[in-house]
Specification:
The protein is of the alpha+beta class. A six-stranded antiparallel beta sheet has the order 5-4-1-3-2-6, with helices on both faces. Helix 1 packs antiparallel against helix 3.
Amino acid sequence: MAIPLDAERYFVSVTRLRLRSWRHWPLFTWHNLWITRQATRTPGFVGGYLGADRDKVYWTVTLWERQAAMALLRDQGAHRRVMPRLQDWCDEAAVAHWQQATPDLPSVEQAYQVLLKKGHLTGLKHPNREHQQHQIAPPVAPARLPLKPAVG
């Protein structure tokens, strides 16, 4: 049986970052506000959430109509400007992407499982032991801030 071409219509992007020091938190938070604003205004953004976990760990889970919509966010504006800084601010960083048929956001636990199976680690200037050993700690109980597309 043939699968319709749009069966895997939605694109999911998950990032897990761990700040190596609290001194990076103010700038990280400032840039995160601008990136969140940019994401919610990017055509093709369906929804998502930000998660804050223990030990300076931050999650981003976003859902897009297509991969090209997420690439539009990634390759310009606030997101593009801050990406190189994360190599210095973080001692752990992992990302995973996948396509799915439904517009359902994965839970942090589901996102974690995909990170373990399909994710890849980002190159960092100051990786900690866990990052060097390709270990990703499970989420504990991250707080979630929902993201919705901006209106108008």
